[in-house]
Automatic annotation (TrEMBL):
Keywords: Oxidoreductase. SUPFAM superfamilies: Thiamin diphosphate-binding fold (THDP-binding) (SSF52518). GO terms for molecular function: oxidoreductase activity, acting on the aldehyde or oxo group of donors, iron-sulfur protein as acceptor; thiamine pyrophosphate binding. It comes from Desulfocicer vacuolatum DSM 3385. It comes from the Bacteria. InterPro entries: 2-oxoacid:Fd_oxidoreductase (IPR051457), THDP-binding (IPR029061), TPP_enzyme_TPP-bd (IPR011766). Pfam families: TPP_enzyme_C (PF02775). This is 2-oxoglutarate ferredoxin oxidoreductase, beta subunit. Residues 49-196 form the Thiamine pyrophosphate enzyme TPP-binding domain. The keyword Oxidoreductase applies. The keyword Transport does not apply. GO terms for biological process: cellular respiration; small molecule metabolic process.
Length: 269
């Protein structure tokens, strides 16, 4: 199959702003799925509300465009009823970690076999540029004209502490790296979290004087470094990229099936 086989061409061009990193993330995801040679019938994407959530309309998989912050809850229901399917859940930083934060930590705790992609542009882009749980302190937004005072979550640390068995981070700039990480996340048996830093020149970049899309991409290149690299050793203030957690632990649906099997044996006895 080709990458085109996985998209709904009738819905293009997409609705994301010029320079938005979300289109690049969609491209990386499509290449990951294509390289894995997955059957479209075996894929389900659920999304919530926000810029990132519109991605479900562009893929030619089974897809659910659901309600704000609840994409993981819908995905959990699909996975429990059809465990043979592969679930992919793209979310924005607010969708995943503000209204959806409780679902996020419990999906990680359960270790249910879902690939969660946090498309982190550090802003609520669709609704006018309000700050998000990942904006961080000292940033400007429409809801913080004199700068934010809230600290940001660290997605990698949060997902790891909550029990996710696969945790990784990349950026919209590092396309080939992102494709490789997404392939590993999709194949991983358990709850996989992939944070992808994505530029929003329309709201975040403009408000915080970080420049246009190409300048924001260069910022991703210059302020991140791979885990174990000399650059990270020399400058620990750089944002680390790569795979942080890859553990083989019991998956929720399999464990649930074992409970059912024990219960049925008990009834027969």
């Amino acid at each position: 199959m080709s990458v085109k086989e996985y998209i709904r061409e009738r819905y293009f061009p997409h609705m994301w702003c010029p320079g938005c990193g979300h289109g690049t993330i969609l491209n990386s995801l499509l290449h990951a799925v294509d390289q894995l040679q997955l059957d479209k019938k075996d894929l389900v994407m659920t999304s919530g509300i926000g810029c990132s959530a519109r991605i479900s309309g562009y893929v030619d998989f089974h897809s659910l465009h659901t309600i704000h912050g609840r994409a993981l809850a819908f995905a959990t229901g699909v996975k429990l009823s059809k465990p043979e399917l592969k679930l992919i859940v793209p979310m924005g930083d607010g969708d995943a970690l503000a209204i959806g934060g409780n679902h996020f930590i419990h999906a990680a705790r359960r270790n249910i076999d879902i690939t969660a992609i946090v498309m982190n542009n550090r802003i609520y882009g669709m609704t006018g540029g309000q700050f998000s749980p990942l904006s961080g302190a000292g940033k400007k937004a429409t809801t913080a004209p004199y700068s934010t005072i809230d600290s940001a979550f660290d997605v990698v640390k949060l997902a790891t502490a909550a029990g996710a068995s696969f945790v990784a981070r990349s950026t919209a700039y590092h396309v080939l790296e992102t494709i490789d990480i997404l392939k590993k996340a999709i194949n991983h048996k358990g709850f996989s979290v992939v944070e992808i830093l994505s530029q929003c020149p329309t709201h975040y970049g403009r408000k915080n004087k970080e420049g246009n899309a190409s300048q924001m991409l260069k910022f991703q290149k210059d302020t991140t470094a791979k885990i174990g690299s000399k650059a990270l050793e020399k400058n620990p203030l750089l944002i680390p990229r790569g795979i942080f957690v890859d553990n083989d632990v019991p998956e929720y649906c399999q464990a649930y099936d074992e409970v059912i099997e024990r219960a049925m044996k008990g009834r027969k006895a």
